[in-house]
Design goal:
Length: 133
């Protein structure tokens, strides 16, 4: 089994790769088949995924040096928050292409956003708990 710090690093890099893939796919395949509003939402999902991919990588590095439970929680919150926030946005923005109305997923987006914010709060708590060296 991989150490937690390595899992966060791998997950962060994978999320960045998928964000890059979705950015290219969206710009070349989806952009002309969805509305301007859907395209804007899709780009928001990509932007948040990129930012939190880097946050997850930083969390993995931080956890290697400071294995605090709040760092651990921030990693879990960033990962699940991106899956819920960006994932729901991707489904909602491409529903016309996919041909299925995922409107029931709408409430998941703000829950994912709350998880992302909780991840930052958890990371902040951990930093306040660090001892000065």
């Amino acid at each position: 089994m991989l150490p937690m710090k390595r899992r966060f690093l791998i997950a962060g890099v994978w999320m960045a790769l998928v964000a890059t893939l979705f950015g290219a796919l969206g710009a070349h395949a989806f952009k002309h088949h969805i509305t301007a509003e859907q395209w804007s939402s899709f780009q928001t999902g990509i932007q948040y995924q990129f930012i939190h991919s880097l946050a997850l990588i930083i969390t993995g590095i931080l956890y290697a040096h400071w294995p605090d439970k709040f760092v651990l929680w921030s990693g879990y919150l960033f990962l699940s928050g991106v899956l819920m926030f960006s994932g729901s946005i991707y489904l909602l923005a491409t529903r016309d292409i996919i041909g299925y109305n995922y409107s029931f997923i709408g409430p998941i987006t703000p829950l994912g956003g709350l998880m992302l914010m909780a991840g930052w709060i958890s990371l902040l708590i951990s930093l306040f708990r660090m001892k000065n060296d």
